[in-house]
Amino acid sequence: MRIESIEQEKQCKQVEEQLHQQHAYLTALHETTLGLMNRLELRDLFEAIITRAGALVDTSHGVIFLVEPGGTEMVIKVGTGIFNKSIGQRRKCGDGLAGKVWQMGQSFVVEDYRTWPGRYPDPSGDIIHAAVGVPLRSGSEVVGVIGLAYLEEGRGFRDEEVTLLSRFAQLASIALDNARLYTLAQQEIAERKQAEEALRYSEERLVRIMETMANGIII
């Protein structure tokens, strides 16, 4: 009976720890999301997304790919840690970890990136130990990928962390859609102002021409 009691206590403690960890994750997710929704400038939003995604799983090494217009390539928009000089690099669908996530449309974890056959041929990957990629979506379409990495031996992305990152990516996708709509609206406003100024200039020019013609008429 004593052994059973000890075993039950151990199980209860494990469940309690799991619930505590889950609560901590959800709290962090909520606070992180609130920090994203008010950002409307795309550059600021990219940096906020990758910084906060890294903070959720305790890494400073992250990257965001976005699918280019035309849908044939992705380009790195922001990178932190070892990826800070990778901005502008491109991947096709299926290339490397990000390309695989794009192709599959779901999260993907690599436990040992250095020996992974599908790794992208980039020397910077030699120091990556574990890596994860999660998709960013607009509706059902994958429009980008968040990639994060650990350099330390023995570290890896647990299932609950991947689930957390996937939930975060869903919310980040909404923030990204909002920022894109804001950018489009600002562009439309600027274009409308230019059109109004061009119309006003044309009307003023027409008036001047008519006045000149009227002054030149001899009765």
Describe this structure in words.
The structure is a single chain. With 219 residues, the chain is an alpha+beta fold. It has one domain (2-177): GAF domain (Beta-Lactamase, 2-Layer Sandwich). The protein has four helices and six strands; from the N terminus they run ααβββαβββα. Strands 3-2-1-6-5-4 form a six-stranded antiparallel beta sheet, sandwiched between helices. A hairpin with a 5-residue loop joins β1 (61-67) and β2. The chain starts with a helix and ends with a helix.
The largest pleated sheet is described as:
6 strands, antiparallel
- Rg estimate, integer Å: 26 Å
CATH topology: Beta-Lactamase
- Outline the low-pLDDT stretches: none
The CATH homology group name: GAF domain
CATH level-1 class: Alpha Beta
Mean pLDDT: 84
Question: Main sheet: which strands, in order across?
Answer: 3-2-1-6-5-4
Number of domains: 1
> So what's the overall shape?
elongated
Element-by-element helix/strand order: HHEEEHEEEH
Alpha-beta content class: alpha+beta
Tags for this entry?
alpha+beta; Beta-Lactamase; 219 residues; six-stranded antiparallel sheet
Task: Write a short abstract of this structure.
This protein has 219 residues and is α+β, with helices and mostly antiparallel strands. The chain has a single domain, classed as 2-Layer Sandwich (Beta-Lactamase). It is built from 4 helices and 6 strands.
How are the SSEs ordered, and which strands pair?
Layout lengths: L1 H36 L4 H15 L4 E7 L5 E8 L9 E3 L3 H9 L3 E3 L19 E9 L2 E10 L8 H57 L4
Antiparallel strand pairs: 1-2, 1-6, 2-3, 4-5, 5-6
Helix pairs in contact: 1-2, 1-4, 2-4
